[in-house]
Amino acid sequence: MGTVKKLAGDTAIYGMSSIVGRFLNWWLVPYYSRIFLPEQYGVVTNLYSYVAILLVLLTYGMETGFFRFAGQNDKESVKVYSTSLVSLFFTSFSFVLLVFVFSAKIAGWIDYSDHPEYVKWMGIIVAIDAFTAIPFAQLRLENKAIKFAILKFINIGINIGANLFFLSFCPWVLKNNPASFIRFLYSPEIGVGYVFISNLIASVVLILIMLPEILRVKIQFDKSLLKQMLNYSFPVLIVGITGMINQNIDKILIPKLVPAENNPMQQLGIYGANYKLAVLMNMFIQAFRYAFEPFFFSRKKDNESNRVYALVMKYFVIFGLAIFLGMTLFLDIIKLLIDPLYYDGLKVVPIILMANLFLGIYFTLSLWYKLTDKTIYGAYIATLGSVITLVLNFTLIPKIGYMGSAIAVLACFVVMTVISYYYGQKYFPLNYDIKKMGFYFTVALILFFLFCFIPFQSLFFRLFTGTVFFLIFILVVYFGERRELKTLLSHK
């Protein structure tokens, strides 16, 4: 079981960079909540939802295709890297040209006709992020987790620094010294636009730093290889697009479906800020994904791989449930990170946390269709998830606002997980420990609902009870897994 320890180690490295990096980046959420009104922050939430969907479209599944083809033959990996890079450069560059030509029309389509510059800025950001996906994937394939983390930190640091400069430092300088040279760099009228300008600066600097990494391999392009990769990756693209729709379409639909008298952009801002409070679950899933994807491709022919995959799933669920309980039981402390103007949306946090946990389970289950080259099944399942998401959003948002979006996200990922498990057992059967995982789910949910219905008289008693409940879950897991954990930790 040394392979499990190796995966845990890689996840820890990616996790540290992802958790620290995302926490630093996420720190901008409470920062924005104290600078912008909810309806202003709603603009940020709305536009970045478009970005998330476009990013998947512009990478068109090439990241997974890269791991699939580069991982099977070391001699061919250089050609795979170069071909992928050339393909992404061409599509990203073409995308930027189209965005600049049609920026005014696009801005009108998404209800930002007064700000076509937003469209141009976001177009460049998306193109750079899409193009650098393969160099970052190469670092992961080569197990250069530390270099990967450093580059991510640089990008995040520049983004945060630029935000602080434009949104705090410049206004402060001009307030105290209106004649300062800062007046040539800063305009109060741009306002929330500086969020996008900061991201743009960080993306441009990142690609300049990565140029040596990008160009270190001789450029070669294999048309036949690209065709094979695209055939493999196309269903992954469908999975990616539908996945982003499932996670982000609510933030696009809320401004369009919430009645005008209910201030839709304000609701979106509140929902977006509280959605971000589920960041710890997202960070855990992302860190795990970075380590797990190259791991399961490399272990495909290993005799003990099936048992390893089953173990990985169980401990993923355990850690995910611990994060769910830890955040929901101590939400009274976590909520202090955002401005009180956003507190009305705290009720969505447990729902979004559980939805993200099921998303992580679904991702872990998805190895069956990737390893068996049946990626089309992933496309079918994800498309069904999108149908569920869209139907529930269109049905529930006009009636209960953003709560309908949260319910839709949870329902979508639960259904996708169940269907993926069913077909996975049919085409790539694994002996998952369903009984134990179900037991831990039951314990966690019982503790959560008990906590919700206890009429607490003081914050101290509430926090004390939350601590006791969390320790109960940890002890249940410990006594249930102590023998296996001892075996795993003693293996070299």
Could you walk me through the main structural features you see in this protein, from its secondary elements to its overall organization?
This protein is mainly α. The protein has one domain. Helix content is 81%, strand content 0%. The chain has 21 helices and no strands.
Order of helices and strands: HHHHHHHHHHHHHHHHHHHHH
Number of domains: 1
End-to-end span in angstroms? Answer: 8 Å
Q: In DSSP terms, counting alpha (H) and pi (I) runs of 4 or more, how many helices?
A: 21
Secondary-structure blueprint:
Layout: H1 2-26, H2 28-35, H3 38-59, H4 62-70, H5 77-101, H6 103-109, H7 116-131, H8 133-141, H9 145-176, H10 193-215, H11 223-257, H12 264-276, H13 279-298, H14 305-329, H15 331-334, H16 349-365, H17 367-371, H18 375-400, H19 402-427, H20 434-453, H21 459-490
Helix pairs in contact: 1-9, 1-13, 3-7, 3-11, 3-12, 4-5, 4-8, 4-11, 5-7, 6-7, 7-10, 9-10, 11-12, 11-18, 11-19, 13-14, 13-16, 14-16, 14-20, 14-21, 16-19, 18-19, 20-21
Q: What is the compact description of this entry?
A:
Helix content is 81%, strand content 0%. The chain has helices at residues 2-26, 28-35, 38-59, 62-70, 77-101, 103-109, 116-131, 133-141, 145-176, 193-215, 223-257, 264-276, 279-298, 305-329, 331-334, 349-365, 367-371, 375-400, 402-427, 434-453, 459-490.
What attributes characterize this protein structure?
492 residues, mainly alpha, globular
